[in-house]
Design goal:
Layout lengths: L2 E5 L10 H10 L4 E4 L8 H7 L5 E12 L2 E8 L6 H12 L1 H14 L6 H8 L6 H10 L30 H10 L3 E4 L13 H9 L4 E5 L5 H14 L2 E4 L19 H10 L6 E2 L8
């Protein structure tokens, strides 16, 4: 089985629609894919309706959190999307995205970058506007070469010249909310140092004690020494270890299935979840 547990669609900051995403996942030879758009579950219905035969969808979301001044992302899997407390927190985060993006555009303009809010909104479309959409506008203007190049202190990285804060969850509260909604939590790309400051291992231990289920180890932003350290940390803390592409379509160069999760780990995630169940595909033929 080939299992990719971290992908994005146009419901947040990916470039594939949810339907395109699942078709592309099947064409890439995946057996299981998780749709984990930022702070939203809006793409799930379309993805389920388009699921090809032989592909299973894990519903989820990537929750925006902050701990001791450091931003972190928490992957939440198979939770009840209608649980009111968690739904309310996701809405608060989403509602703060537009004012935050407008502030970052204004800061860029003050730095002499002729980026227009109208263009950023056009790039975001119906998705939850965020830094990748602004980064795409910077690529179009020739300010940076790639989207990843915009996530530096010069531009959009945490604490960068054009960075602006938004409403973010306390990760301990996020873990509690996801657990109460029957879900499973995995810390996304915890050692992605090129994105900015990372949470120290002592804080990961605190999150594990609070009920964190796992950490994402195999990720393109982690080099081999980082992966080895994370595996050792997970062993010591009794955490699951996952692997995923963090696919964003054409917005990044990473392909579907570039990193994958062990089937035994996937089985344990599904055993722990009580809020929702993986959805087997039957919406259309699997690409040859």
């Amino acid at each position: 089985m080939r299992i990719d547990l971290h992908t994005h669609s146009t419901a947040s900051d990916g470039t594939d629609t949810p339907a395109e995403l699942v078709r592309n996942a099947a064409a890439a030879g995946l057996d299981v894919i998780a749709l984990t758009d930022h702070d939203t579950v809006r793409g799930h219905a379309e993805a389920i309706a388009a699921l090809p035969d032989g592909l299973t969808l894990v519903t989820g979301a990537e929750l925006s959190c902050r701990l001791d001044g450091v931003g972190l992302h928490l992957l939440a899997y198979l939770f009840d999307p209608d649980e009111p407390e968690l739904a309310r927190e996701r809405e608060l985060v989403r509602d703060d995205r537009v004012p935050r993006a407008r502030t970052m555009v204004r800061k860029l303009q003050e730095l002499g970058v002729p980026v227009a809010w109208e263009r950023v909104a056009e790039i975001a479309g119906d998705g939850s506007v965020g830094r990748p959409h602004i980064a795409t506008a910077l690529v179009e203007l020739g300010v940076v070469e790639t989207v990843s190049d915009a996530f530096t202190p010069d531009w959009l990285a945490d604490g960068g010249r054009a960075y602006a804060e938004k409403h973010e969850l306390d990760p301990f509260e996020a873990i509690r909310l996801v657990k109460a909604a029957g879900g499973v939590t995995v810390f996304a790309h915890p050692a992605a140092v090129k994105r900015g400051r990372v949470v120290p291992e002592a804080s990961i231990a605190r999150l594990a004690a609070a009920g964190l289920d796992g950490i994402e180890v195999d990720h393109t932003d982690h080099d081999e020494p980082a992966r080895a350290r994370l595996r050792e940390l997970a062993r010591g803390l009794g955490l699951l270890t996952t692997g995923s592409s963090d696919y964003h379509g054409s917005r990044k160069t990473v392909g579907l299935g570039e990193c994958v999760t062990d089937p035994e780990i996937y089985g344990e995630i599904t055993r722990r979840a009580t809020g929702a169940f993986p959805v087997p595909g039957a919406g259309g033929p699997r690409p040859a």
